[in-house]
Design a protein that fits this description.
Layout lengths: L3 H28 L5 H27 L9 H17 L3 H25 L5 H21 L4
Helix pairs in contact: 1-2, 1-3, 1-4, 1-5, 2-5, 4-5
Amino acid sequence: MKNMVNSDTVKLLQECDAGTKMAVSTIDEVLDNVRDTDMKQLLQESRNHHEKLGNEIHSLLNSHGTEEKDPALIAKGMSWMKINVKMSMDSSDSTVADLITDGCNMGVKSLNKYLNQYKMADHKSRDISTKLISIEEKLCRDLEKYL
């Protein structure tokens, strides 16, 4: 029988999982357009951090006997459209930085909301959430000079 703690833990991990997948796919979507080599490296490193954390989340979800969570199709579709419309009008590094910064800000906002919503989540899943928030915030700060 699943208890309340387990339920909050699983839900928080699933939201983190969806977030890491969204980040990886967004970075993949824009990476080829980046001209500045330092910025490209920055995005690749962040993508790797998201992917590594995603793998950690997957094994935790598996240990709880639950499924991974993909980002909502509507969110993915809206993100894809926003990226492609903006990039078709201006494919500069500044546009990429703007898009990624928006994504990071949405991620941080959502993750903080989920941390508040799933108060009974275990320590490890809360740590993962705060680690993911830190990755997003750092990427935002690192991209400021490209805006």
